[in-house]
Write a structure and sequence with these properties.
Elements: E1 5-7, E2 10-12, E3 16-18, H1 27-34, E4 39-43, E5 60-63, E6 68-71, H2 80-89, E7 96-100, H3 105-117, E8 124-127, H4 143-154, E9 161-165, H5 171-181, E10 188-191, E11 195-199, E12 201-202, E13 207-208, E14 216-221, H6 225-238, E15 244-248, H7 254-262, E16 267-270, H8 272-277, H9 281-296
Enzyme class: oxidoreductase
GO molecular function: dihydroorotate dehydrogenase (fumarate) activity
Main location: cytoplasm
Length: about 300
């Protein structure tokens, strides 16, 4: 199967990318994805202006049997200069996306101005969804603030830019966010981030599983697949065709990848299962996907991508 996919100025030869936050904190982790069989691209940890340690621990819990996770990481990262050094001074085998975040609009703008002034020429991802920073609402749930930020960003930023979105749960919200995003020359959207403010309880101790925010955290893994598919599908129906979609959420096997393609995904990002299984997950997912293609007689991604069937 030819998996070649193009987003803006970048060409991808496999479908898979790590989700920002998983296997991307350090140079060493980023290199593991660069060298992983069947990886199509690498994305850096969402970078703030300065290094952040994130929330107190325990802040992550995984149920590997159920393929589910909950986390309240709090944007731990080594700062924009660390990741800029990585993308500019390392030999990159794969397209490498630079994830940017800010705890206020000024920090977002300052970070993007630093990228604009650099020699980085790849895709930039503006993270408008971080559910696990106490006292900070998810920007992309505030439609007026989202438009204001994008107005200010595109007043100066000329490199290919995508946005990371939270999950939406209402048809009206799909309409509203798409109407905003369609007004800008976005290269792609990445949907979805973790489903915010879930709660997991230890049945042995009756205690929450993570410490920050009294146990509230972002849900990931198998449990969020239906929500992720709905967001990919709804956005693909509403966004201009030139805005590509990176699908994130609920990917544990090849069928999940296939379903995201049916809903219109151009690339597929893996988070929780990558954390559970490690970088070998991409090769397994591609093998399972190819088995589905062979069983269905599919020889071209155009036979699948966006071809979800409805009930007449």
């Amino acid at each position: 199967m030819d998996y070649t996919t193009k987003i803006a100025n970048q060409v991808f030869h496999h479908l898979f990318i790590n989700a920002a936050g998983v296997y991307c904190q350090t140079f060493e982790e980023l290199e593991q994805i660069q060298n992983a069989p069947c990886a199509g691209a690498v994305i850096t940890k969402s970078a703030t202006a300065k290094e952040r340690s994130g929330n107190s621990e325990p802040r992550y819990f995984e149920n590997s049997v159920e393929h589910n996770t909950i986390n309240s990481m709090g944007l731990p990262n080594l700062g924009i200069d660390y990741y800029l050094n990585y993308v500019l001074k390392h030999s990159l085998k794969l397209p490498t996306l630079f994830s940017i975040v800010g705890l206020c609009q000024k920090e977002i703008i300052d970070n993007l101005k630093k990228l604009q002034a650099s020699d980085f020429s790849g895709l930039t991802e503006l993270n408008l969804s971080y559910p696990n920073v106490s006292g900070k609402p998810q920007i992309a749930y505030d439609f007026a603030a989202t438009r204001e930020i994008l107005d200010n960003v595109f007043a100066f930023y000329s490199k290919p830019l995508g946005v990371k979105l939270p999950p939406y749960f209402d048809i009206a919200h799909f309409d509203q966010i798409a109407a905003i995003l369609n007004d800008y020359p976005l290269a792609y959207v990445n949907a979805i981030n973790s489903v915010g403010n879930g709660l997991v309880i230890d049945p042995e101790t009756d205690t929450v599983m993570i410490k920050p925010k009294d146990g509230f955290g972002g849900l990931g893994g198998k449990q969020i697949k239906a929500t992720a598919l709905a967001n990919v599908r709804a956005l693909r129906q509403r966004l201009h065709p030139q805005i590509k979609i990176i699908a994130t959420g609920g990917v544990t096997n090849g069928r999940n990848v296939y379903d995201h393609l049916l809903c219109g995904a151009d690339l597929v990002s893996v988070g929780s299962q990558l954390g559970i299984e490690g970088p070998t997950v991409f090769a397994r997912l591609e093998k399972e996907l190819e088995e589905i293609f062979a069983d269905k007689g599919i020889t071209d991604l155009r036979q699948v991508r966006g071809k979800l069937k409805l009930i007449a």
